[in-house]
Amino acid sequence: QIDTERLGFWMGTRIRQLPLYPLGKELFLEMMDSKFVSAGVKLSRKQREFLYVRSNKSVRSFDGVYNKILLNCKVNGNYKLSMNDLILYTKP
Predict the structure, then answer these.
(1) What is the DSSP letter of 17?
(2) Quick one: which of 19, 18, 15, 17 has its CA closest to 31?
(3) pTM of the model
(4) pLDDT (tens digit, 9 = 90+) per residue, 22-32?
(5) Who contacts 13 (Cβ-Cβ below 8 Å, separation ≥6)?
(6) Count helices and strands in the chain by DSSP H and E runs
(7) Distance, C-alpha 29 to centroid of its chain
(8) Which of helix, strand or coil describes residue 42?
(9) 62 touches 51 (CB < 8 A)
């Protein structure tokens, strides 16, 4: 079980001051899943692993990817994403 309050604090305040910081894959995937579920976006394991790789396995980079995906979901009104959507939304 992950302490989401502590992780949220850490991500929200501290990570912006740090250089790219790699996390363990499972912790990263749990954090990612928690953020997306709380926003109403459901992702498959394959999609989460794709985002893990696409965001360079760092929390700082993931925040940018997450914000871009969430913005596109809100604009399009579509919270059920296909793999093509993720590819499109995460292009550099």
Answers:
(1) G
(2) 15
(3) 0.63
(4) 567 787 888 88
(5) none
(6) 5, 0
(7) 8
(8) strand
(9) yes
| HEC secondary structure over 40-73 | CCECCHHHHHHHHHHCCCEHHHHHHHHHHHHHHH
**Residue 19 φ then ψ, to 5°:** -70, 175
Q: Which residue has the tokens 């999609």?
A: 47
For residues 20 and 58, the answer to whether their CB atoms sit within 8 Å is yes
3-state secondary structure of 58: strand
Band of pLDDT at residue 83, cut at 50, 70 and 90? very high
Sequence-distant (≥ 6) Cβ neighbours of residue 88 within 8 angstroms = none
Angle formed by the axes of helices 59-76 and 25-39, to 10°? 20
- Cα of first residue to Cα of last residue in the chain, in angstroms, is 33
Tell me how crowded residue 61 is: count the other CB atoms within 10 A of its CB.
Answer: 14
Where is 12: in which H helix or E strand? none
The model's pLDDT over 25-77, given as tens digits with 9 standing for 90+, comes to 787 888 888 888 888 988 888 998 888 888 776 677 788 888 888 888 888 88
